[in-house]
Each structure stands twice: as structure tokens, then as C-alpha cells.
Amino acid sequence: MSDLLLILVTGLGLGALYFVAASGLSLIYGLMGVLNFAHGAFMTAGAYAAWLTMGALPTGWPVAGRLVVGVLVAVAVGGLVGLVVEVVLIRPLYRRHIQQVLVTVGLSLAGVAAAQGVWGADPRPVDKPAWMSSTTDVLGARLPNDRLIYLLVALALFGGLLALLHLTRLGLVIRAGVENRTMVEALGIDVHRTFTLVFAIGGGAAGLAGVLYSQYAGTVSPAQGGSLLIFAFIVVVIGGMGSLTGTAVAAVVVGLVQQLANYYAATGVGDLSVVLLLALVLLLRPTSLKGATA
């Protein structure tokens, strides 16, 4: 019983990490129709921003305090990178999807090369708060505390994004602009500015995911963003392109399948199981788990 509880909690924690990584990707595609392959570069930028910030702060500060500041900086950096990319590269290419893919893939490769050129290709260790490195005893199972943090962050992000889209004027403008951009512009609303803000929000979520993944791995490296991006894309495709709720459900399923396969089969089988799950969903239900935006 304790082993099963441990697997379920770690699987949910991993799924929460995947959701944070995939949420910005799903948001940008669902509301703007942009398939952003540079999302991994945004996550890498956030991870390195947090790592550099934590290293620059006084060592007398507690690790948890430096991590909180690092997270804030990572979100800001991710949002800024997303804003600049949308204005400079994506805005001239709306409705030109092939060019968007080529540009974002090129940006992703350039981001990895730039990080390797500045900090090298070797992973760099990151500081982790002692509490996140320890466990909590629940019903005889030693549950990792960091997975609980990932769950709380993912739930807060999911609730915040849903509230933004359905309970605010900005969310109304975003959804209206997706349905009929010409009509919204006729009302005097700057849709381009609104979409830039959406891209910045997606970039901020990616920066947050980069920090969480560096804490999960214990290191930061140029290739981390690309590795996490693969699972983020799988989650988004299974959950339905552009569906935030579907993305959340798919992230939980993917995390649980991966952990259960790794435990009951063999280490490494989890990744294969996720790919097989993707193929199965596409074969049996091509529209994925949920097709509506949000």
C-alpha cells in the first residue's frame, strides 16, 4: 500500500511538472494558433536566470529565500523573452505556420548553442532547500516534499489561467480576438498588444517550468529545456491542442503512466510507455482527450 501511494504521489508530482511546462505551450497555440518550438528555449532561459540569481544573492540567505527570488526572476525573464520573440519574430508571421515552425525551431537550436557557448555543455548543480530534499511520512510512505510543491504550483497556475481567461476583461478580449479578430479591432481594441501579452504569459509559465525542472534534476544545463519540451508536446497533443483542461488531465495521465511503468516494468520503460500512450490516443481518438480551448 505504501509503495503504491508513493508511486501515485510521485506520478502526480511529475504530471504537475509536465503541466507547468505544457500550459504556456497550450495557451499560445489555443489562443493564437502558434506552434512554438522555441518554448524549450524559454524554459532554459528561466532555469539559467534562477540559477544565476541564486548564485548572485548573499550566501547568508536561506536557500528557500534565494529560490523564491530566483523563481520571480525566472518568470520575469521568461515573460520578457516571450514578449520579444512575439514582437520581433512571430507577429510578422501570423497565419504563416510553416515559417513559424522554421523560425521557432531555429530559435530553439540557437538558444541551446548560446547557452553552451556561455556556460558550457556540462550540467551545473543548483542549490535546493533542505525541506524540498527531504520526505514526509504519510500512511507509511515516505513522500518526497518537492513533488508536493510541484502539485501546489500546478494547481495555482491552472486556477490562475482559468480565472484569467473566464473572469477578466482581458480574457474576454483574448477569446473574442481568437474568434473574430476583425470585429474586435473594429471596436478599437489592439489585438496585437493582447496577443503579445498572451505570449509573455506563456513565456513566464515556461520560465517557471525551467526552475522547477532544474530543482527536480538537481542541475541546470542547456539541453534541459528541449528534454522537457518533448513531454510538454506529448501532453498537449494527448490533451487536445489548445485545451488547458485537457492538458491538465493529460499531464496527470502521462505522469502516472511513466511512474507506474518505471516501477512495475523497468527503469526507462516509462518513456516508451508515454510514447505508446500517445500513439494509442491518436489512433483511437484523433481529436485527443478534449478539443475545446480552456
Automatic annotation (TrEMBL):
Membrane topology: Multi-pass membrane protein
Keyword RNA-binding: no
InterPro entries referenced in this protein's UniProt entry, alphabetically: ABC_transp_permease, BCAA_transport_permease
Record key words, sorted: Amino-acid transport, Cell membrane, Membrane, Transmembrane, Transmembrane helix, Transport
Compartment(s) where it occurs, according to its Swiss-Prot or TrEMBL record: Cell membrane
Transmembrane regions listed in the UniProt entry: 6-29, 41-61, 67-89, 101-119, 148-174, 195-216, 228-256, 263-284
Family from the record: Belongs to the binding-protein-dependent transport system permease family. LivHM subfamily.
Protein name: Branched-chain amino acid ABC transporter permease
Organism name: Terrabacter terrae
Phylogenetic lineage: Bacteria, Bacillati, Actinomycetota, Actinomycetes, Micrococcales
